[in-house]
């Protein structure tokens, strides 16, 4: 062969080889039988809609996030609300002066616990310490039991709260949705009276909770802070001339922020968006059970795997006493909160029924059920599988028809737990918290013990 022709041929071959190699696509994981089974289960569970029915939007796609028409989400509101929610400098009405400036909304709903408390009973005013994930927070010994700001029921997560028109376990907050017709129960002089403002649940609670949790978000709380003044001006054109309206605006900003707390980077959400390898085979098997044989989707549905329905499942109530290393107070059996929806509406048919909770990032906090009566997801699944009530106060006639033995095998229970524990876990929730506060204080708690725990 002519030398010139040879080298020309060799050069052409090398060029073609390079182009072929460079254009070769990386290996793509193809769908398998489990993916097909799960897609079929999702279609059946959503009346044919399929994966879009369960997919969350991005947290900045405000038009796609459920919101109160009276409080449209804007970037300025979210930015302000994020800071207010974590601002410990606003804790200006504590029972004892020692707790001034030491707690925030995030004391009971913080990122380390998946926006829960990591305790059987969250503690606001009167709490000290944090530990690694909030597990070490306890009562300030200077406080009497009656002085501590706690609720007689476990603090629920605020993740996916955008998918709930009415909130807290009995759904008492919110003037719309399931609370239309409950105006008689919006008792004057109680937090429920804030329903008369006409907002949905998260907005109503964010306004009412300021007084309940001894916070000051009226204009006087922000005097001298130019950062907050600018943020209020941008979000609401609020010049702080109306004390009460500033507090309402603060609540609306926090509600807008809370609505953006979407765990959309969880493996299941990634799988719904087309990442076939985002979940393991065991997690996919658990998902097929969740949306199929285990019938979990009958109650837990939509993007948040929640619903605005209430059921009596016979779970035990939170009670005064010790839960491991944690002390519980103000939770005696007479508390109306232990009656669930019925404690709010007064209706016999609603007694002992509690709102269906969302299911993401549950492994961040080791307490489950409205009464913190379970300490692992394995226990919860085993309880649902056996369907034997643990609460003697709940009449069998009130128990949900859905509360029946599921007949899951040990392996199936393990697969279901794998889905709940890991496939529904977003590991990057820190994106939702501020780097610092305008006050310069520590958060979510600012007492001396917590600051030490944070390394301040």
Structure description:
- The chain is mainly alpha-helical and 456 residues long.
- It has two domains: 36-60 and 264-423, Cytochrome Bc1 Complex, Chain D, domain 2 (Orthogonal Bundle), CATH 1.10.760.10; 67-262 and 448-454, Orthogonal Bundle (Cytochrome Bc1 Complex, Chain D, domain 2).
- Helices cover 30% and strands 3% of the residues.
- The chain has helices at 3-23, 33-45, 75-86, 201-212, 226-236, 243-259, 267-272, 281-290, 341-345, 377-386, 410-423, 448-454, and strands at residues 127-128, 138-139, 310-311, 321-323, 326-328, 354-355.
- It has a two-stranded antiparallel ribbon. A two-stranded antiparallel sheet has the order 3-6.
- A hairpin with a 2-residue loop joins strand 4 and strand 5.
- The protein is globular, with a radius of gyration of 25 Å.
- It starts with a helix and ends with a helix.
- 49% of the residues are buried.
């Amino acid at each position: 062969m002519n030398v010139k022709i040879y080298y020309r041929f060799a050069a052409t071959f090398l060029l073609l080889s390079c182009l072929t190699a460079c254009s070769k696509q990386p290996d793509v994981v193809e769908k398998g039988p489990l993916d097909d089974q799960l897609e079929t289960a999702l279609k059946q569970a959503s009346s044919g809609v399929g994966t879009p029915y369960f997919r969350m939007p991005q947290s900045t796609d405000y038009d796609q996030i459920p919101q109160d028409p009276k409080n449209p989400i804007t970037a300025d509101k979210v930015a302000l609300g994020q800071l207010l929610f974590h601002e410990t400098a606003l804790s200006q009405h504590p029972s004892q002066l020692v707790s001034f400036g030491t707690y925030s909304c995030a004391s009971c709903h913080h990122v380390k616990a998946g926006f829960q408390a990591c305790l059987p009973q969250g503690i606001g005013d009167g709490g000290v310490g944090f530990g690694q994930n909030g597990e070490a927070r306890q009562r300030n010994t200077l406080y009497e039991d009656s002085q501590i700001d706690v609720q007689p029921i476990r603090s629920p997560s605020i993740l996916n709260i955008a998918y709930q028109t009415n909130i807290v376990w009995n759904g008492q907050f919110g003037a719309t949705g399931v609370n239309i017709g409950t105006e008689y129960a919006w008792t004057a002089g109680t937090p429920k009276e804030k329903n008369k403002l006409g907002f949905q649940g998260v907005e109503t609670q964010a306004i009412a909770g300021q007084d309940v949790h001894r916070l000051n978000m009226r204009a006087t709380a922000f005097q001298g802070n130019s950062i907050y003044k600018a943020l209020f001006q941008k979000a609401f054109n609020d010049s702080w001339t109306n004390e009460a309206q500033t507090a309402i605006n603060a609540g609306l900003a926090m509600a807008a922020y809370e609505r953006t707390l979407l765990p959309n980077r969880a493996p299941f959400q990634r799988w719904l968006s087309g990442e076939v390898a985002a979940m393991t085979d065991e997690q996919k098997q658990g998902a097929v059970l969740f949306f199929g044989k285990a019938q979990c989707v009958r109650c837990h549905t939509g993007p948040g795997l929640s619903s605005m329905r209430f059921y009596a499942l016979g779970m035990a109530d939170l009670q005064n006493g010790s839960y491991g290393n944690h002390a519980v107070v103000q939770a005696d059996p007479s508390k109306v909160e232990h009656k669930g929806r019925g404690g709010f509406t007064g209706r016999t048919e609603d007694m002992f029924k509690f709102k269906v909770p969302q299911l993401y990032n549950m492994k961040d906090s080791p307490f489950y059920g409205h009464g913190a009566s379970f300490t692992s997801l394995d226990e919860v699944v085993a309880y649902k599988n056996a369907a034997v009530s643990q609460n003697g106060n709940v009449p069998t006639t009130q128990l949900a028809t859905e509360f029946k033995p599921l007949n899951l095998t040990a392996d199936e229970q393990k697969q279901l737990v794998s889905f709940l524990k890991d496939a529904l876990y977003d590991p990057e929730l820190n994106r939702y918290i501020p780097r610092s506060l305008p006050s310069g204080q520590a958060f979510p708690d600012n007492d001396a013990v917590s600051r030490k725990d944070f390394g301040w």
